[in-house]
Structure formats: structure tokens, C-alpha cells
Amino acid sequence: xxxxxxxxxxxxxxxxxxxxxxxxxxxxxxxxxxxxxxxxxxxxxxxxxxxxxxxxxxxxxxxxxxxxxxxxxxxxxxxxxxxxxxxxxxxxxxxxxxxxxxxxxxxxxxxxxxxxxxxxxxxxxxxx
Length: 128
Fold this sequence. Notes:
The protein has 128 residues and is mostly beta strands. The protein contains no helices and 11 strands. It has strands spanning 5-7, 10-12, 18-23, 32-39, 46-51, 58-60, 68-72, 78-83, 92-100, 117-118, 122-126. Strands 2, 4, 5, 6, 9, 10 and 11 form a 7-stranded mixed β-sheet that branches. The chain starts with a strand and ends with a strand.
């Protein structure tokens, strides 16, 4: 059972930056697609970015392109989401999720239903 733990959220002023972390204490994320999702108050959860297993190739939602950067660390245990130029509309609980990608090259997806493992979320609040 893969256990994901998010951290790095907080209260930030507009224009600021944050780096969110999704980590596993056991095992590796190397063979997993990992996605970041967010749920704003009163809204449905949406996918913002994912990184594919093996290759680390990234996908971004149009709404966050140029401000969000997803990356993996070299140990295979952590995936980051760097958020720049934060806006009030980025306020949400951010979740990471993982889907087994196996040993084949494939692309990740922002479709939530494909992900099997979810973290508990980390709150990001953007306010003056």
C-alpha cells in the first residue's frame, strides 16, 4: 500500500511562491505516475499537473501553465509542485495521487479516476 504525504502548504501573499512536496516513506515513486490535484472551496477537485513514470514527462492544466512546475527528486521518493506568482484563485487543498505506470513508457493523465493512491492534502491560502 503506497502512502503519500503532502506538505509545504501555507498562507502566502499574492505574487508569492510555494513548493509543495509529495513524499513516500516506504517504496519508490519511480514506476508511478504522480498527479497533483486541488479542490477550492465550493468547487470540484481538478487536476493541475502530473509527471509520468520512468520518463518524468509533465502535463499541465491550461489554467496553470507557466506558473506551476512539477518535478521529481533523484531518490524516487518525492515529487514537487512549484507554484509561482500565486493568485487568490489558487487557494485550495492540494492533493497528490499516484497510479502504477509499470515498466513501460506511457503518459500521465489529469483524470482523477485513474489514480489509486491519494494523500491527505495540504492547504494553500493566497491572501494579502
